Amino acid sequence: MICPNSTEIKGITYWSNKTPNSTGYPNYAECWFNFSVPSKNQIKVTFLEYDLEENCDFLSHSDDNGEHFYANEQSITLQAQPNGYNNFSSFHFISDGSVQKLGFKISIETQGEWIFNE
């Protein structure tokens, strides 16, 4: 299943695991959202909505630094690699077949260049 709701508005990408007017995400859902952090830039990811079945349904982020799981964070900042290359990233959502919750919605926004501390 592809998470159905990915839109861009004024340079900000919004990604969600639910469709408009839905009561939540389906059981046994699995989907990814792939993107890259451009060289010498950082991206702010903001969790606008977050209602997942605890310890059963998961939203994770993977990049060159490994896989990280999220629960109720407000926002995170992702940075490009210090060697000047893009940082390829992926969000992964997976749900089991029991309780259906409302789901999540995140925004992904480029914050501009950052200075590497070498």
Automatic annotation (TrEMBL):
Protein name: CUB domain-containing protein
Classification via SMART domains: CUB
InterPro entries with a match to the protein in the record: CUB_dom, Sperma_CUB_dom_sf
Matching Pfam families: CUB
The CUB domain, residue ranges: 9-111
Swiss-Prot/TrEMBL keywords: Disulfide bond
